[in-house]
Every structure is written in structure tokens, then in C-alpha cells.
Amino acid sequence: MFVSDIHLNNFRNYKSFDLCFSDGVTVLYGKNGLGKTNILEAVFLTVIGKSFRNSKDADLIRYGEQEFNINLSIKEDITENISIKYEKNREKYIKVNGFYLRKMGHLMGNVIAVIFSPEDLQLITEGPAERRKFMDIAISQLYPSYYFDLLQYNKIIAQKNSLLKNIKFQNSASNRAMIDLWNDQLSEAGSKIIYKRYEFINEICKIASEKNKIISGKETLKMQYDSGTFTLEEMGDVDFTNKEEICRKMKMYLLQKMDKEIEREAAYIGPHRDDIIFKLEENDIKRFGSQGQKRTAVLSLKMSELELLKKKTGRKPIFLLDDVLSELDINRQRALINELTNIQTLITCTHIEETIKGISSFKAIELEKLIEKNPLQ
Ligand SMILES: Nc1ncnc2c1ncn2[C@@H]1O[C@H](COP(=O)(O)OP(=O)(O)OP(=O)(O)O)[C@@H](O)[C@H]1O
Ligand SMILES: [Mg+2]
């Protein structure tokens, strides 16, 4: 698939802006603060329905305006039109081929893409929420129903948490029965999440460890599922390829740990506490890895996400590279460029790197000139 046209209206620094793309590699270049990342942000908004930069919808509206609109045409076997409109203090309206989507989750799987930006280093350096976000975006694109499972799970966790807060140390039989009811639902919903995350980590790890070895010339990347439901010891006792078993064991451990949850007034057991441990050979990268080793691991991971999406969906995802080339050495740049065969890739940068010039065919767009040509800009 490839993005063929994009129209932005009052989105970030763009008042009214049109841009056409062709398949293959396009390089959008220009000085800092021009609006290059904003364009990739708009494209990725049609993938997950929100900003990859964790910005609020209201922040995406051009200063002083009341709403933004994004219209995107995607060519695959047919042309698909996706439009997103957001008015201040209202909900977001999403249309696919002219039809409103009743739920945001229905957007998943329409446009599939991988974005790689310098902030992705946070995947290794920051807390577990970053790694859960990475898994959730990737798995939702692979299996759109996962997005709904996640919503359902989060809803139950919120309700269970509010119950735990309200009962305030009253460890009575009736309170325990109520929590037990929530735990039943939590295990049902949670086991679906755990099952898919475990599968995803195993699959992506196989690809990423090889890629990391090729790029670094030596080191094998290992990824380990760090469950928020089961301790390391308990994990050895669970068959993660069996959803029913995960559900049963989750229920059992939730029951065993109910007193602690009542004491802490919080639901602290479940996939909302999941994490991934990244290791180079046997050493935790977060603790022991150099900056370059962390960067290589993230690069391997992003390339693997792209490969997994291709393999599992049989489709061609869009690859968005936001200002990452300048941060990589020549070998790493080449490894990345080698991945770009046969897929649409939108690259942003301040200047065109030598490695880009080595690509057999690419289109370069000087954003400043284009902005000048847009009369309403
Ligand atoms: N809501 C908004 N309304 C108007 N302008 C905005 C809004 N949000 C961000 N901007 C502007 O967008 C510009 C930044 O755009 P963007 O991050 O795309 O730049 P960039 O070209 O990627 O720059 P860099 O090369 O530094 O990464 C800034 O000038 C900023 O002031
Ligand atoms: Mg940028």
C-alpha cells in the first residue's frame, strides 16, 4: 500500500496543505521546525487514530483554530480514503471511504505502518509503559480485535481499582466475593492479552536477534516476556500457548493474592504491569548497554516489526522514518536502507545523506518550497 495524497487543514503548523506521494522512497527535507515530523504524524494518525508523539488531540489543532482535518488517500488494490476530523472538546470523527466509523478500533488494520523516530530509544531507556505501547500498536495492526480486547481489559481494571479503593481495608466475605467476580472477568480478558503478547515477543525476537547480529556484527538480541501476572517462578508453570490455561492460572493467582490487593487498594496483578526485558547475550541492555547498542537494538526491533507485519498480513506496510538516519553510523544506515525494497518509505531529514543518494530511485521533496507554493499556508 502507499499514501498517494494527503490534505491537511488546520493541523499543527499547516493551514491548508496538499501533498502527493508516489510509491517507493520519498525524502522530505528541510530545516528544523518546518513541519516535517508533523506530516508523518498526520499519516500515522490514520493508523492508530492518535499521535505517535503522545500529544493530545487538542494540541494537534493549529494555534487559534477550533478543529483539524486530515484526508488521506491510500492505494492498495483499490483506493481508500480516510478522513479524521477533530473539533475542540468534541470527539474525533473518522470516516473510511465516506462512512463514519462507530468505534475508533475499527480503524485498526486499514492502514498498516511502522514509524521509527529518535524518541524510540525510549523503548529501551524508559519505563515499561513504552514497551507495552510498542507491543499494543504492533499487535493491534496484526490482529485488530486485540485493540478491543485491550479496551475491555482496561475497563475492567478501572472498575476493579475503584472497588478496591472504596472497600478500604474491609476484607469482608462480601467484598471478597465482589472482587472475585471482577477477577473472573479480568482473567478472561487478560488471558487474551497475555497470549497475544507472548506470541508477539517470541515471533519478533526470532527476527530481531538475527538482525541485531547482522547490524552489530556480533551480538545476539534476546527478548524476554516479563509478566505482570506471574512471577518468574510461576511463569515456568504456565503454558503460554494455551489461552484457557493462562486464564485458569491467572484466576488462581489472583485469588491467592487477593489479600495483598485489598491491602494495597490497587489491582497490581495483570498484563497492565507487563514488560519486556531486552538482553544482549545474557546482559540486560537497559542496565549495561552502551548508547550505540541500545540504538542498534531499537533499529533491529523496528525492522523486525516491519518484517513481521509483511509476513503476517501479506500486505505491504508503509515505513515512516523520522529523522533517524543522521543518528546512525554508515553501516547502520545501510542496513536500514537495504530494508526499503518494495515498500513505500517516507523519510524526513534536514539534508539528504550520502546513503540516501545510493538508493536506485527516490523522490526528494524540499518542504520549504512546497510550503511557499501552498497559497493558504
Ligand atoms: N498546534 C500547533 N499549531 C501551530 N503550529 C504548531 C502546532 N504544533 C506544533 N507547531 C509547530 O510545528 C513546528 C514543528 O514541526 P515539526 O516537529 O514537524 O518540525 P520538523 O520539521 O520535524 O523539525 P525538526 O527538524 O526539528 O525535527 C514548530 O514550528 C511548531 O511551532
Ligand atoms: Mg522532526
Can you put this structure into words, describing what you see?
The mean pLDDT is 95. Helix 4 crosses helix 5, helix 5 packs across helix 6 and helix 6 (173-216) packs across helix 8. Strands 2-1-4-5-6-7 form a 6-stranded antiparallel β-sheet. The protein has 377 residues and is an alpha/beta fold. Helix content is 47%, strand content 21%. It starts with a strand and ends with a helix. It has 2 domains: 1-112 and 316-377, Rossmann fold, CATH 3.40.50.300; 120-314, RecF/RecN/SMC, N-terminal domain (Glutathione S-transferase Yfyf (Class Pi), Chain A, domain 2). Magnesium ion binds next to helix 1.
Highlighted features:
377 residues, alpha/beta, Rossmann fold, 5-stranded parallel β-sheet, 14 helices, binds adenosine-5'-triphosphate, binds magnesium ion
Largest sheet: 6 strands, antiparallel
Weakly predicted, low-confidence segments? none
The CATH homologous superfamily of the largest domain is named RecF/RecN/SMC, N-terminal domain
Shape: globular
Number of helices: 14
Order of helices and strands: EEEHHEEEEEHHHHEHHHEEHHEHEHEH
Give the helix proportion (percent range). 40-55%
Spatially, the strands of the biggest sheet line up as: 2-1-4-5-6-7
CATH topology of the largest domain, by name, is Glutathione S-transferase Yfyf (Class Pi), Chain A, domain 2
Radius of gyration: 22 Å
How much of the residues is beta strand, in percent?
15-25%
Round the mean pLDDT to the nearest integer and report it. 95
CATH class term of the largest domain: Mainly Alpha
